[in-house]
Amino acid sequence: MYLVFVCPKCKLSAQILEPGHKTVSCHRCNSQIKTDSLRFFGTFEKREQAVSMRTIIQAQICSSPDGLPVDISGNFPAKPAAELPGSFSVPAGADVKTAPPKIKRPDRIIFEVLQACGIMTVSDCEYYCAERGVDGETFKKTLQKMIEAGLVYRPDKGRIALV
Description:
By secondary structure, the protein is α+β, with helices and mostly antiparallel strands. The chain has helices spanning 47-62, 106-117, 122-131, 136-149; strands spanning 2-6, 14-17, 23-25, 32-34, 40-44, 120-121, 152-153, 159-162. The chain has a three-stranded antiparallel beta sheet, with helices on one face. A hairpin with a 6-residue loop joins β3 (23-25) and β4 (32-34).
């Protein structure tokens, strides 16, 4: 037997579970979830049926007719698997309650790069930070502030390191 559920923490991942587990971790947000508190959207004897239902639910999570993500917390009918149709639609007026992805602050990114690499040239650090989403001007301003604050120092000309 297979059960289909959606992570109650991130509400962005539909998953399949075999009964007998006390906890399960979300594939997307890695949170540990107790299975006794989950809401199941169907029970299936065959894995193919469970995969099909999970695919339908995941597609509805990812997009709706107007292209917005859908919050499915409690919007699907709680019916036995035999009564669930091959596809179903999300009720109109479903609110979007997904949080935007967290963006790391430029000073944290510079700190992580320097922590991983140690003493390095300013241009190398700028390159690694650019790979992580920090543009050149922001990098220069943030690096100057970090030097003035005493978090970063210059052991040689053109090189930087953590204090």
